[in-house]
Every structure is written in C-alpha cells, then in structure tokens.
Amino acid sequence: MNYFVDTSFWCALYNVKDINHHQASILWKKAASQPVKLFVSGYIFDGTITLVRMRIGHSHALELAESLLQSKVVNFLEADKEIREKAWQFFKKYAVQDFSFTDCSSFALMQLYGIKKVLAFDRHFINMNFIMNELYSFIRF
Q: Is position 60 within any domain?
C-alpha cells in the first residue's frame, strides 16, 4: 500500500507534546506491521525538519532528518517544473481554501503518482478527496 506522508503527521509522530501524537504513534505501528511504501516530497521534508527544529530542537530535527534520509520505506518525490505548474494551478483555483503551496504540490504529486492515501492531520487532503489515515478511524482535528 502506498501512502503520502504530510508534515502534520511527521511532526505529530515525533513531538510527544503534539495533540495528535498518540494517534500518529498508533498509525505508525499499524503501518509498520503492513507492507507499505511511504512517500514525501522535498517540500514536506523541508517543512518537517524546520518545524521539528523550531518546536523541539535542532538535535531532534537532525535525528528525524537522518532517519527519513536513510529509511528503506520512505521514498522522496521531487517537484519538477510540471509539478510546480500543476501545484500553481491548484493554488490559484482554490482561492477560497487556505491551501499552502506545499499542500498544492503534495496534491499534484499524489495525483501524478496515483497515491490516494495520506497519513496526515491536515483536513486539506480530505477536501481534495484523498483518503486520510485509513489505518485508524478516530482522528481529532
């Protein structure tokens, strides 16, 4: 099973003070017990490492970054010109939503690679009809 993993999930998993930490931990254990491929973008990696550094410290950010970079199940998808243009179209089209450009690039990558499921605590993925946190049925927002 393929899952895109959003910054909101990584931060919740890694930060024990995050409101969604418990849910992220349960999801992570369930995902680890199944044959899964996890996908992130360069934007997600950047946002995750930056937020972890700001919220819980540089050493934690380094540890998480090394873990993601060396992982055998986490695959990096990079936004090329085609993805940036598609993300920009989403960004312009959904002006009434509060999507970030990173959100839009995630949507574009997921569409391009046919990834329909996401591990996240960001309702924007539901708004775009992706399946969020399928491994766990109770999610607090």
A: yes
